[in-house]
Give the backbone structure.
Amino acid sequence: VEEKEPRSLTGRARQFEGIFGACYSRVLGFAIRRSDDRATAEEAVSETFLVAWRRLDAVPDEPLPWLLGVARKVIANQRRAAGRRTPDGPLVPLEAVADPAPGAGIADLVADREAFAEAFAALSPADREALALVNWDGLSPKEAATVLGCTPATFYLRLHRARRRLLKELEARGHSFGERAAGPVTRPRTDATQARP
Amino acid sequence: LNNGNEDIKRELRRLDPVAPGELDRAAETDEAAGMLTRIVSTDPDAVPAPAHADERLPFPEVEPPRRRRRSLGLALATATAVAVAVLVAVLALTGGGSEGDHLSAALDAAAARAAAVPSGPGVQPYTYLKTREISVRTTDADRRSWNVDQSTTREEWVTPDGSGRLRIVAGPSRFVGSGDRVEWEGAGRPQFLTLGFGGRTEDRWISAGQLRGRVVSLPIEPGALIVRLTEEVVEEQGEGPLAAATLQLIAEDLRNPVASPELRRALYQAAKRIPGIEYLGELTDPDGRGGVGIGVTSSNAGYPQRYSLIFDPDTSQVLATETTALPGAGADEPAGPTLLRATVYEEARGTHSLSEKEGMWLSGFEPSAYRGQGGSAYLIYRVPDGVGTD
């Protein structure tokens, strides 16, 4: 049985439901990674989709980067409203560090992972954000640039610098990821240029 | 960990707070369905949304309540209205002298006192901080709105390296006035859009350098300091009026026990340079403590609001910051100012324990927190159930 809806709202609601269904989990994940707790994250998601509902005409055909850009500002609002006593940017849970896979060399593995987590955590919020948008939120550099409100070229530069600084932090902790990692991050190319060993 | 970029990507993904597949079916949950239903039940034209996604959004928390009723104004405006009356009386009694004179005199006196007060927790190894946050929010359901008061108590036990324990006790939310509850019940107790009504308690460990370290690098020359603070506000892409955000930043830094006497003096002097800063006279904070207020008035989405900082002139300690909606031109606007949000700085002292129970040692997570050599910024340790929260 098809539900009766006000005619003026039917099309709008259906369009919104499509966006909501396609993007809800991605927006929720984005918010969880940047919020102090799940309840705050869900509140940010609700605020974000409320903006989309009210600004539906402004939502682009590829809504996810737009939504994440809104979510980012909603979360910034939440932090400021909370007195900005905790820094912004992606969070690193200890559980991710302290749960190594079983097998030989667990002690070393734990130490390595803790060093990595500490190195990541030592980065500036902007550096962590650049790395997280690509590696956690699964965005392309172009999408990530939309979220941050910058050009793709600027984002490539930010990402490159973030990786370099992450490597420096790792080196400061006695870990190295090899020469390839120290090279510049290049834009994806079709000719698959190989980095020198 | 020596295979280059792929290792980096793998390790980064391992740090992801969201486990692989954890949210794959999130859109199919009852929570998601409920959120969707509540959103589409709201009037999309009820509040003007920003013109662009990247446009500054107003504070959700300070959005002036719509459809306010007289009971709300009476319930919320009492303290502020009394304070304003006190201000008027003080100004009337003092007679001469401009607001600028009062502002300079009050801040200069506070700066002088701040310079004479030693910083830090004294002989105790840790600092204990207690803050209460109060917010009045308008929440939506079924295209209607009600005003809800939410109080959150935040406690911090801060170690010398800037790590520490953070405990947050929130809610439960309450209706601002009895009329709000009656009307909500009459509407069939609809579920609200963004707020839960149950309280919650969270307990975490925040690792080195994050709780109190920032002030060490701030300049102590007032001119350079206000430039630096303003730059920080802008760089943060913070929302809301710039002057108000700067004032809030000053309050936070004044409250920081690591702040040196010289910095605290400079912070009070820098406050004089905030554009539009005003002397508000004697004010009472939400805990009933008397102090002196300074503030700025700005417009948030067309609604005039006042952002104020209240400090104790005798000790130079910051007591609270408040956001107050001022009467607007609309016929349905309340007659008096309405407190929308407050951060009340209740306690700051040295302690030898990381628990509210002196001497209790949180062995569940504390040793791990010191394993790193500083620099770890966001390692959050979930406290096992029952530890330190009884």
Observations:
- The first strand of chain A starts at residue 92 and ends at 93.
- The first helix of chain A runs from residue 7 to 34.
- Residues 1-7, 84-88, 92-107, 178-197 of chain A have pLDDT under 50 and may be disordered.
- Residues 26 and 137 of chain A are 7 Å apart (CA to CA).
